[in-house]
Write a structure and sequence with these properties.
heterodimer, A: about 425 residues, 19 helices, globular, B: about 375 residues, alpha/beta, 8 strands
Chain lengths: ~425, ~375
């Protein structure tokens, strides 16, 4: 049987049908989700999000049979790859799925047994473990034909992708985005990024076996921009009190804007989600039923304790209304200009919050506290993410001093539950909630 | 025998007495020539070890490496009060964070100059780094009110390239030098603060096997520098030549420096290194006539380094070449805890070395800890294994 036929049988016929039925059943059952009665049910659109993401991983599973596959970092200029029809895989998202499914430690152990230190990023360990053992909750990860690492989220991704490049013997395209210490990136830094993007195209084309169609690139850019815009609008609806969704909802609904950016289906999905969120506002539905206090979350989520944290805070009438992490996937929308793809990509991918100074993040948090009418902040000091975490001690102090809001530094790790202690976290959260009044 | 090396404090004082400025420079890669062209003496800050880390801990989480935490503690306790400017090259997420919080929150009295190091050796990387140097040039113009010409810059570059070439010779000829391991590393690490011309003079003296008596040394009544090694005193360990079990030392920084005496006492001898502060900074000369491009070419042309984005295979090939050329029987990776750039490469490097019949061992250290018995036992067991 040809690869293409196997793909269509397993994906287009069987897989998609199965996922559609699964979604229909979930919709019929009604939203199940939180065990706590203090939280509103998850959005009705949640099964559709789940279906879209599951379909992506299903397609990825069989992608090696008929498409070129690229593994990319979460902040990479994916538009180029989409326009060249690559199947794009995000190892970070895969690791987050493993974290949520609570299999990350098992997979990280595989990497540790192979010599990788527990002091490196737990996303990397999870994925390196998957690479070495073949274990994964998504069925099977396709082998990459190309790797694309962009340093705008951390330098770690370059170290990580160099390991992948060696293991898979795949070409590694690097987009090096100089860190922005001050308010603006230097022009030579932006020019450097633009030049790298242009130089990356021939490598991508060679592996893809096709040429980049500029019109298609513009179309992908337009869809990227629309998805980011809609995502931002969804988050900004939380200016409303009570907040129609929480940051915990955002954490679980953000996968498409990360890994399916540039797809029409993502735009449709977020348009429908925005509509449902607006309906909630009209009907006065808050994500936390008795919203008393509103908080900001800084840094990646603690994937394996999302439910616990959501329910704990919800029971105390505390809504996690905004997050710098989910905000990062919408705040650069204005920089995306599909008509000038390379210039705009150079700027967009230079300016993510993680590629900017600690003072910029503080200013972002202050602005969010103001715009979302927040009563405090939880800063997740994430052992696995140094670029996000370094600076938090000063940021917390200044939030307290300058904004007059309480701020808590919570020690944990986004994917490695061995670095998380429930009892101290519970005690600290309880004391913090009490302090909020 | 090791000629007397001026102390760090003496060099700083002499520079300032002459009306020159001093820059504290954090690891790893930067252009000495650029700073010297403005009469700014770079004095590197690798930690230093054994400082009260609690001052750094007021800003940095415990999972940040001790090199970065100590540097901040050193600054906060007045250790850098004597310098006029602080340069923070970008090497990793932790140094990036340190640079950022210095600029945004700690705000030392001196200007802070960040420098982004590109992660490749492409034409665009060289061009970008040259532009970064131009940007640093403009900042130094503002600070010093000087504007060195291209000829001034080229003269400074040539001085540094000459010193780098002599440093490379020291590394290559280390088995023939009449120096103990401690003396050898005291000499090559003096490059972290000595002006190029003094370094060159010392290096020539050692290579020629003669004592030096430079005006600079006479002026200082020089004693061996011990500022980076805590209480290390001159030792009479076995000379490098032909004695001991030959090993290659990789990692970031060999602290505490008593490590060398311990290795010698255990019967080992370091015949080559891939240390970030030493062997990874043996820069070749640049080629361009444009000073900024030339500095960029030299810096990016250095030995493979994860902090410059070198592929793992290049690092492995480099280590294999070094071990073969030096006759090392094994490799010790001596790393600072939490150093991600090093940690990612280790499994592949160790596997590659093993496949080539070269055993390796890893030791993790914190710059504030003395050399632990556990670490020494591991090194001893490793030396016994490869003997």
């Amino acid at each position: 049987m040809s690869g293409r036929l196997v793909y269509h049988l397993n994906v287009s016929v069987l897989g998609r049908t199965f996922l559609r039925v699964q979604r229909w059943q979930a919709e019929q059952r009604g939203a199940s989700g939180w065990k706590s009665q203090h939280l509103a049910p998850p959005l009705k659109i949640s099964p559709r999000v789940k279906e879209l993401v599951a379909r992506h991983w299903l397609e990825a599973r069989y992608a090696n049979l008929h498409r070129k596959v690229a593994w990319v970092t979460s902040g990479a200029p994916v538009e180029l790859l989409k326009a060249l029809d690559y199947c794009v895989i995000y190892p970070e998202n895969h690791a987050a799925i493993c974290g949520t499914a609570r299999v990350a430690v098992d997979m990280a152990s595989e990497a540790e047994n192979a010599g990788y230190s527990r002091d490196i990023c737990s996303y990397a360990r999870t994925d390196l473990g998957a690479m070495l053992s073949g274990k994964t909750p998504v069925g099977k990860l396709p082998k990459p034909d190309l790797l694309l690492a962009c340093t705008n989220i951390c330098q770690t991704v370059l170290f990580w992708y160099r390991v992948l490049a060696r293991h898979f013997n795949a070409p590694l395209v690097l987009i090096d985005t100089p860190f922005v210490y001050y308010e603006k990136a230097s022009e030579h830094a932006v020019e450097f990024v633009k030049r790298q993007l242009e130089e990356a195209v021939p490598v991508m084309e060679r592996t893809a076996g096709r040429s980049l169609d500029e019109r298609k690139l513009q179309e992908v850019g337009r869809l990227s921009r629309m998805a980011s815009q809609l995502w931002m609008e969804i988050m900004q609806r939380n200016h409303h009190r009570p907040a129609p969704i929480t940051a915990f909802d955002q954490f679980t609904q953000m996968a498409p804007v990360v890994e399916l950016r540039g797809d029409a289906a993502t735009v449709d999905l977020y348009a429908a989600m925005l509509k449902e969120v607006d309906e909630r506002i009209t009907r006065g539905i808050g994500a936390v039923k008795n919203e008393r206090k509103r908080l900001l979350w800084d840094n990646l989520p603690i994937w394996y304790r999302l439910r616990y944290l959501a329910e704990f805070l919800g029971e105390h009438g505390v809504a996690l209304v905004a997050s710098t992490y989910t905000n990062a996937w919408g705040e650069l929308t204005a920089l995306i200009d599909p008509e000038r793809p390379f210039e705009s990509m150079a700027r967009t991918y230079t300016y993510p919050i993680l590629n900017r100074g600690t003072g910029h993040k503080l200013a972002t948090m202050k602005r969010m506290i103001d715009e979302y009418h927040l009563d405090g902040a939880i800063l997740h000091s994430d052992r696995s993410c140094k670029p996000y975490s370094i600076g938090q001690i000063d940021q917390r102090d200044r939030l307290i001093r300058d904004c007059g809001v309480p701020a808590l530094l919570l020690e944990a790790d986004h994917n490695d539950s061995r670095c998380y202690s429930e009892e101290p976290v519970a005690n600290r959260l309880a004391a913090f909630v009490e302090m909020l009044g | 025998m090791l000629p007397a090396i001026p102390r760090r404090s003496e060099i700083i004082r002499a520079q300032q007495d002459r009306g020159g400025l001093v820059a504290a420079v954090l690891p790893i890669h930067y252009s000495r020539a650029l700073l010297r062209a403005f009469d700014v003496l770079p004095v590197e800050v690798w930690g230093p070890p054994n400082v009260d880390a609690s001052y750094g801990a007021a800003h940095l989480q415990p999972y940040v490496c001790s090199l970065v935490r100590n540097a901040l503690s050193f600054l906060r306790t007045g250790g850098l009060d004597v310098v006029d400017v602080i340069v923070v090259p970008h090497a990793c997420d932790s140094l990036q964070g340190l640079g950022s919080i210095l600029i945004d929150f700690v705000r030392p009295s001196q200007p802070v100059i960040p420098l982004y190091l590109p992660r490749g050796m492409r034409e665009s990387d060289i061009q970008f780094l040259a532009e970064e140097f131009r940007s640093v040039y403009r900042q130094l113009e503002d600070i010093t009110h000087r504007s060195p010409s291209n000829a001034d810059l080229m003269a400074s570059i040539e001085r540094e390239e000459a010193a780098d070439a002599l440093l490379a010779q020291l590394h290559q000829r280390r088995p023939q030098l009449a120096l103990t391991q401690t003396e050898f590393y005291r000499l090559v690490r003096a490059r972290e603060y000595l002006p190029a011309e003094t370094c060159s003079e010392l290096a020539r003296a050692v290579l020629d096997g003669r004592p030096t008596d430079s005006p600079l040394q006479r002026a200082f009544n020089c004693q061996p520098d011990d500022s980076s090694s805590g209480n290390a005193a001159p030792t009479r360990n076995p000379p490098l030549k032909g004695e001991g079990i030959p090993i290659l030392l990789s990692g970031i920084v060999p602290e505490p420096m008593s490590l060398f005496e311990s290795i010698a006492e255990m019967g080992g001898v370091i015949v080559a290194d891939d240390l970030a502060c030493c062997g990874r900074r043996l820069y070749p000369p640049g080629k361009s006539k444009d000073a900024f491009l030339r500095m960029a070419e030299g810096l990016l042309g250095g030995p493979p380094d994860p902090m410059r984005g070198s592929p793992i295979q290049e690092r492995l090939d480099h280590l294999l070449r070094l071990t073969r050329a030096s006759g090392a029987r094994g490799v010790v990776f001596y790393d600072v805890k939490f150093c991600e750039p090093e940690l990612y490469d280790l499994p592949d490097l160790r596997r590659g070395l093993q496949e080539a019949g070269i055993p390796s061992a890893t030791i993790e250290v914190d710059l504030n800890d003395p050399l632990s018995h556990q670490a020494l036992t591991r090194i001893e067991a490793f030396l016994e294994m490869i003997a």
